[in-house]
Amino acid sequence: MSFATLNLNPSILKALAETGYTEPTPIQAQAIPEIIEGHDLMASAQTGSGKTAAFILPALNRLAAPSKMPGKGPRVLVLTPTRELAQQVCDAATKYGKNMRFKIISILGGMPYPVQNRLLSSHVDIMVATPGRLIDHIERGRIDFSRLEMLILDEADRMLDMGFVDDVERIAQATPATRQTLLFSATLEGVVGNLASRLLKTPKRINVSAAKDKHENIEQRMMFADDVAHKNKLLSHLLTDTEVNQALVFTATKRDADGLADQLSAQGHSVAALHGDMSQRERNRTLLNMRNGNLRILVATDVAARGLDVRGISHVINFDLPKFAEDYVHRIGRTGRGGSSGIAISFASNRDAQLLKRIERYTEQSIKMHTIEGLEPKYKLRTGPSSDRPRSGAPRSGGYAGNRGPSAGSGQARGAGYTDSRPARSEGFGGQARTGFAGQPPRERSFGSRNGNTAAPRGDRPGFGAPRREGSDRGNFNGNRSHFNSNRGNKA
Ligand code: AMP
Q1: Could you give the CA distance from residue 460 to residue 201 in angstroms, rounded to a whole number?
Q2: Mean pLDDT of the chain
Q3: What is the topology classification, in CATH, of domain 213-369?
Q4: Architecture of domain 3-209 in CATH?
């Protein structure tokens, strides 16, 4: 199939030809005709599937015909959960619309209000916004949506996770009922489905599970790490590999991202941190440096997991695993961009066993264990019956040792919960070699529980009515912990 069959305006086809794309991705091939026909659409598509073009191309196609309405407000509104994603949408629109005349603006948290007020008082065709800041402007009566034809919710699941549901609904209510609404999300079930039923009119539904969604172009590896010092050694070793063109390293917290970036810089690496505490200007500068190859390593929190599109990233390294399986998929999707291949390496310790299982279940793939000669883990992964069984009646006292089941082996727990026998050589966590906490874990500790703060499982995550955290890093529950104080080890 070629783009030419999609009924797109010739100026868009010309720009596409210049990008070098030869054919639409599956999500583009399915979504674009439905959108051009004017249907509302709910599409499940992962980042990396080409979903941005799937909605921006038909949006531009609309702009190729003049508005039937007077006024100067936006004709297309794209809502994104993060500023980075908004930037990516703006970049895509500019790239695919390079042969057209239209005005695109972004209204994002962190930008000065006077600048945004000026932008809002001028003629606009496409507005890309994060919900929190947009609501502020709507409440101040600064936005005229009378011309709005198309509302696009990009990564709707993420917006709901970040507590934006009320804002998204209020924004939708501020737009004309005649609008066309498109919702893109990693999942269409649960709260996202509920939101869609309120905002969309008899939508077409598209589920794309392309090879890329399974990240078949990305080799996934897992390395068992005894403790933070061991992780640091593994990372140093990996980064000396000349195969690493550019690497994106994920940490659990902003503070850890800064700490690790400083540490790597002291080792002579060309490195920077990227997280939600940085100003938009700093974040843009850092991303530009990464894009043009001035930086080799970026140490980031999950704020960078979505929307970051740097082709040179050959390796994603999860220094800390993400708290949610979905975020794992988004993180590793930062490598293997645009059809290239990539390597994703995750460091995991005993406490991550449950999370690894969930990641494997979610991705329907097993992650192979790798070791580096001379840097093998000292301690053994706990083995024992699956802890997926109901936990009622499970002992609740803290510490891994006291809760180990009968098959957990004979090693003594050492504070952070390691045993002293050799590491299991399992081929992935979903397989025969069971890992993790024997019997019943002391608490649901697999997600973000390292300092005793247990993040809720996905279904219980803040969503409806939760305070919004625009530009913040989700799940930053460990803000006071430093990974780099080796004296503290993992006990924090
Ligand atoms: P997205 O899923 O929107 O984040 O896009 C992922 C990457 O795929 C971006 O680098 C796009 O430039 C690229 N891309 C989008 N559409 C195509 C296509 N039809 N062929 C090749 N690459 C594409």
Answers
A1: 28
A2: 77
A3: Rossmann fold (3.40.50)
A4: 3-Layer(aba) Sandwich (3.40)
